[in-house]
Amino acid sequence: MKVSRLFQRTMFGIFFLFLLIGVSTSVVSIYSVDLHLTSEYEENSRDIAKTIADASVDIILNRDLSSLQSLIDQFVEIQGISYIYIVNDTDEYLAHTFVPGIPEEILESERRVGETVTRNLAGMGDFVEVSSYILAGHVGSVHIGMDVSHVALAIQQAIGNQIYLIAIIFFVGIFASIWFVSFAAKPINALLDYAVTLAKRESEEGSSETAERVLTRNDEVGHLARLFQYFSTVSDPQKLEQASDDAGKE
Amino acid sequence: MQHQHQGDVEHFGYMAQLTRRQLTQGVLAGAAIAPWRAFASDLVGQATTVPSGPLTDSGVTDSEIVLGVSTAFKGPSRGLGIELYRGAVSYFAHVNDQGGVHGRRIVLKLRNDGYQPVPAVENSVKLIVDDKVFALFGYVGTPTVTRVLPVLKKFQDRDFLLFFPFTGAQPQRQPPYDEFAFNLRASYKQETAGLVDNFMAIGRERIAVFYQADAYGRSGWAGVRGALKEHNTKLVGEATYRRGEQYTAVMRAQVERLKKVNPDAVICIGSYAACAAFARDAIDNGLEIPIANLSFVGSENLLKNLTDEFGSESERYSRWLVNSQVVPSYEDLSMASISEYAELMQRYDPTPPPEFEEHDYVPFAKSFTSLEGFLNAKLMTEILVRAGPSPSRALLEDAVFSIQNHDLGIGEQVHFSPERRQGLDQVYYTIVDNNRFVGLTDWKAKFAV
Fold it and tell me: How many CB pairs below 8 Å do chains A and B form together?
């Protein structure tokens, strides 16, 4: 598909415009998806921590700790949650999901309930930890750790899908614009051919098909063709000027 | 005679549709209107009718009583499910050969859960809703049973009960789920308290735990913690492993964690494959201290893992083992039920269920687990006998409560009441001698510091 030289700059303009839209949309998407998903993960985990905290009160006060363990085991099956631990008001660990044991980093760290804590656990990875008080802290607190790499993977997947879509739109847009430009350039090329024919004073038979095609058009190309045809038959400069004015009014 | 029998069945079929509360209300209402009914009967004679309803109670036909079993027939803990089943089947086969219970054979509807909670829940729903069994029997494991208890609560209007699960955990022993289960064995609380008391008595006061990271492990951990509290002390350390670990698992990380706290003894709350792996790695890495295991471990399977790998050298590892049991030694043939167990296991030699059979599993001639299954079946049969010729789920609990000072043939009386839903309390301690478990009588001589 040949692009008219007249539209080549327009084509490059469209290309760069699409590229700019694609890149800027991707950057904004990455930023907003990252922000949104991270906060959503944190928010969900905080809700889960609160749910466990609410459900734990009765178990800790009245029932066996195996029920508490069973409760957190169900929640740790949720994607994105890597560990859960529950401590009582004297900072004793009542239940947890760590294997082969509670990491030293957690044992030695200060308890900051309600805050979002970033942790690097040796041999396990990077985690974001959220927490919730059980009975306003009088019974203890629940802590939930999310694997940062899992959150990052989820973000990458979400962003990947967006970039994939933008890339498809970009390439479809480029091909569509080339086709539209070529489509728009076709009558101009025909007009050019016609003008060349007139200039060469070629026989009517040889160019009748091209002439018919451009002379019957009801747009600017048709008007110009008819004007060229008129110019080729009129030699008086005043009549030429009059014809040019008439064409302009049309 | 046949007509009378059908009448009874019809009557109980109707009763089976009632909830316990409705039944109680009905009994009270019946008592209140009894004089009037007698008078009315005199007046109308045969016009007084028995309420119509289905001919049979669910799970009970003229020829069978169906019990539902979901257990580990496959997976790393299959040895527990299979041996418990084999012990129960040896007794039920004997009962069926004798004509069954009130003329009905006891039939087990089996499902495999692989010792995993989600399949256990799904199986239980199928047993209740699709298979319509009479009661649930012989489940294995704390993480499984803990998750099944809410299922029983959900179907409480159908009066389903769980009999004699192979777990000593608390959830089915205390509210809100205690009303849905009956236990035969002593609890983990009792087992761990006994182990702690004995270790403390011989000066092994620094106690650590190695446990399965789930409800079972936590139950045992809580038992040890509680027992140590009684001695005004605390756990010195802990290490965990993931449920489903095989004997091939490396437990060096767990051993290293525990070595750091320099314990005098380790109490393991796990399954046989993982606990055998831990004992192997502990001794190999210089942690030469008593390694105690709870009854759930499946002692024979644990020892088999070590002897299969080390042969005669396994004594190096097994000499540190001390396992608590909730049934007496199967070698003690002076007890009536032990003798009967030995005879029936030999006579019937039950195989694993064909539908779940994996040919690499070699059953044990005798084991603590199959003995427990045998005793479970024996007591279950007694309950079904007491439930009468027309058993009903709604009245099954009353049949259990009628058991008072019942001699199960192991030197310990069994009795149940609404406040007591556990039959036995005795805990036994065993050590390995000549590649078999024998009773431990002198803790000081064996394990004193």
Answer: 68
Is residue A11 within 8 Å of A3, Cβ to Cβ?
A: yes
Contacts of B191 in chain A (CB under 8 A): none
- DSSP letter, residue A92: -
B2-60 residue pLDDT tens: 333 332 222 323 333 333 333 333 333 333 333 333 323 332 222 223 333 333 558 99
d(CA B223, CA B268): 12
Token pair of B45 as six digits: 């004679």
Residue A95 has pLDDT above 60, yes or no: yes
**pLDDT surpasses 70 at B1:** no
**Exposure string for B137-155, b = 16+ CB within 10 A, e = fewer:** bbbbbbbbbbbbbebbeee
Answer whether residue B144 shows pLDDT above 90.
yes
In three-state secondary structure terms, B257 is helix
Provide the CA A96 distance to its chain's centre, in angstroms.
39
Interface pTM (ipTM) of the complex? 0.79
For residue B169, the chain A residues in CB contact (below 8 A) are 64, 66
Closest Cα of chain B to A62: distance in Å?
9
Q: List the beta strands (DSSP E) in A68-124.
A: 81-88, 93-96, 117-121
Cα B439 to Cα B449: distance, rounded to the nearest angstrom: 20
Do the bridges between strand A125-134 and strand A117-121 make them parallel or antiparallel, or are there none, so unpaired? Answer: antiparallel
Identify the bridge partners of residue B207 per DSSP, sorted by sequence position. B265
